[in-house]
Amino acid sequence: MAHMEVIKPYPIRSPVDPDVQNKDYDYKVPLAGDGSNYPCKLYHNDSPQVSKATYTAGQSYQMTVAGAMELSGGSEDAVHGGGSCQLSLSYDNAQTFHVIKSIIGGCPIQKTYSFTIPSFAPSSNSALFAWTWFNKMGNREMYMNCARVTIQGSGSAKRGRYERKRQNTLDSLPDIYRCNIGVKGNGCITKEGEDVQFPSPGPDIEHGQDIKGNQVAGNSGSSMNGLDTSDTSGVTGASSNSTASAASASNSIATTVSASSASSGSENAASQRPPPFMPIILYQLLLSVILSLRRINRTWSVCSWRTPQRTCDTFKLSNVDDAGYRFILFLSLYPGCYAL
């Protein structure tokens, strides 16, 4: 029996895309067990990059999957008892994927799923929209289809070096879960017969239905959102000591994970960034010290973090009254640094 593939939007090299010449007629097969064709079966390297759908940030859309039986007019396909799926976006040509929706259990039995492009998604004419699936029954596999899409978003995909807020950016969304693909999934293997409970499912979570139409039970993932999956290590089941306590606390069908080095690195980088502003009390303290020194002819260096490299300007304050001092300090202290 056949497996499943995305048919809306058309993924790269889709056999059902009428505009594609180099079709992949084995599109429904999973990724290689050693991860050698992760991500996107390496089709993200194809050129030219042709967008197959246009989405607007903040708006909702639908995606559809199908199997060979359905595409040929039949009614049944190998959904392998369902499983869990994720929808994600990539703005760096498949280096990273950020989850915009997780379907826990019963996927892809339903075949059509709605999703919302985050309101803060940047604009891009070559973003990647990815569907990943971890089947419940059968061989331990990971399926992945990727489509080129256009995002009409909230701005450029380029972000400042010293980003002040992360809660409303793609970086605030979890990375996709990876498993069953060798070292690229940190060697984890999902447990047959259980729906993967994504440790970091993201902001949009849907619990699917099984083949009998019953709602799939499972936790919302909220108790495990703090666990990082940028390296997406995880073994379904409670066999790993590293996350057994988290699985017990959530009363879920556990998916154990190890912490992500990539996400930790981004957090460390964020912690090393200079403070976006100085408290008012420091303003006043520095004002008092400078006004008391009264060194009129002292040479001052004003340095700013506005540019990627710290730049400084030097000048002298001569015959400047108190009001002048206050005005100069107000302009130069925010949002930079001050050095005497």
Name the helicity range: 10-25%
Judged by helices, strands and strand pairing, the structural class is alpha+beta
Q: What's the helix count?
A: 5
The side-by-side strand order for the widest beta sheet comes to 2-8-7-4-5-9
Total number of beta strands: 14
Strand content: 15-25%
Describe the global form: globular
Radius of gyration: 26 Å
Overall average residue pLDDT: 74
Major sheet: size, sense and barrel closure? 6 strands, mixed
**H and E string:** EEEHEEEEEEEHEHHEEHE
Low-confidence stretches: 159-164, 219-274, 334-340
Question: How would you portray this structure in words?
Answer:
The chain is 14% helix and 24% strand. The strands form four sheets. Strands 2-8-7-4-5-9 form a six-stranded mixed sheet, with no helix packed on it. A three-stranded antiparallel sheet has the order 1-3-6. The termini are far apart. The chain contains five helices and 14 strands. Residues 159-164, 219-274 and 334-340 have low confidence and may be disordered. By secondary structure, the protein is an alpha+beta fold. The protein has helices at 68-71, 244-250, 261-271, 280-293, 322-333, and strands spanning 4-8, 54-56, 60-67, 83-90, 98-104, 112-116, 124-135, 143-152, 205-207, 234-236, 255-257, 299-304, 311-316, 337-339.
